[in-house]
């Protein structure tokens, strides 16, 4: 509100002239104090990290980062920033971003003094209980990871691989029944949606021994996908912008915005599933199962922790895996050279039917090259995941980084780094993994594995994710031929911490070259 508006308001109240003058003076002083405070803070913020280059407005305000966070293209913007300003660039008054694999591993090393920043508060999906991703206390985080490690790795699940096989066959049956274009029929399939159904069914099955049946119903049950997509921008804004994080940490807002079990659609039913399944594992009549939650309980998770971890799996674990399944498939299916080379390898291999074994898939070099090239070319997680520099500060390449500075991950720049991957790093080319050797290959391998994080922050679901990837592409390209509907259109993709993707449309034909039954 302007000074004149305030004055007019006071005059409308028929207050004495002296009162109006006093209010005008107070308003002027108040606005002057705000302006001076902002300028001082901006100057101090700018000077604190002035040794690091970046966009000017990013150095004095978080508005620059907020704008690009809302754009849905932050992963690409950060990639450009890293290329323009170097391996440690400034993207906020107290934020830096890096694409240096050595610095990223150093920050996440087991004994590293770096800790998680407040951005991780946005991943606390249960307002009352932290999960392995949101827990910032290092001691609690280490203890929590120790309790869930076996469950996430599938070590306590005797039927892990067969469970994944079941859902791959669900995709096969869905395609055969609803999407095969035969006898002149035209039945386009949105692979983006199918991939998410697959990830949801696998995760709920291996975690809860209770698949929700997305593939069998071929529908967005409870409008879950729609709801998650609506919430992701808010979660990312909270993670990236300190003011938003502080605002949403308010106890009143936390209660208003918290996920609840109410409602017939959206997150409510998913919350109910998570809580009901977790509740079954506790009490005198507790259900004992050899699944992920069963492992959590056996290793000491409380009921509240089990519920919180279950919800994390449904939201974060599903979308990151779905992105990998979508994008690797898309890049194979739209590159005829890669497509035919992979099918040739699959056709000549001796593979278990009806679904290839994980051990067999790991021994198919071109398939493995496609998987790792896909993870590199389109990293499934490209969130900043800010870490806090220890209080005493740190030194990087001769530059001192003040304590309390937060450093984020520039995933797009890291995995498109031409020094590491070659001048054609922006191109999907699986052969780079077969041609490289020695120290070059070792560097590439160590770098691409950072898509799963490293050290004390490494993704706990890595084992299960790779198991899914090793199987899904082998079966799809053994059994079917795919043709993209509109090669010029591509597909829709927005980034809000996780990728929201759609319209990955393909026509599917039965393969005629080999009997894969």
Biggest beta-sheet profile: 5 strands, mixed
What would you give as the CATH superfamily of the largest domain? Answer: Cytochrome P450
What is the alpha-carbon Rg in Å? 26 Å
> In what order do the strands lie side by side in the largest sheet?
1-2-8-5-3
Terminal Cα span: 72 Å
In terms of DSSP E residues, the strand content is 5-15%
C-alpha geometry:
globular
CATH topology name of the largest domain, in short, is: Cytochrome p450
- Estimate the helix proportion, in percent: 55-70%
**What is the mean predicted local confidence, pLDDT?**
89
Instruction: Briefly note the structural class of the backbone.
Output: alpha+beta
What is the correct CATH architecture of the largest domain? Orthogonal Bundle
Q: Give the count of helical stretches.
A: 24
Count the E strands: 12
The residue ranges in which pLDDT falls below 50 over 5 or more consecutive positions are 1-7
Structure description:
The chain is α+β, with helices and mostly antiparallel strands and 517 residues long. The chain folds into two domains: 1-48; 55-510, Cytochrome p450. It is built from 24 helices and twelve strands. It has helices at 3-12, 17-48, 56-60, 63-71, 74-85, 101-108, 138-153, 160-179, 191-208, 214-217, 224-240, 242-248, 251-257, 267-279, 292-298, 303-333, 336-348, 358-361, 365-377, 411-414, 418-421, 431-435, 438-448, 462-479, and strands at 88-92, 95-98, 115-116, 189-190, 387-388, 394-396, 399-401, 406-409, 480-484, 492-496, 498-502, 505-510. The strands form four sheets. A five-stranded mixed sheet has the order 1-2-8-5-3. A three-stranded antiparallel sheet has the order 4-12-9. Strands 6-7 form a two-stranded antiparallel ribbon. The protein starts with a helix and ends in a 7-residue tail after the last strand. The relative contact order is 0.14. The model is unreliable at 1-7 (pLDDT under 50).
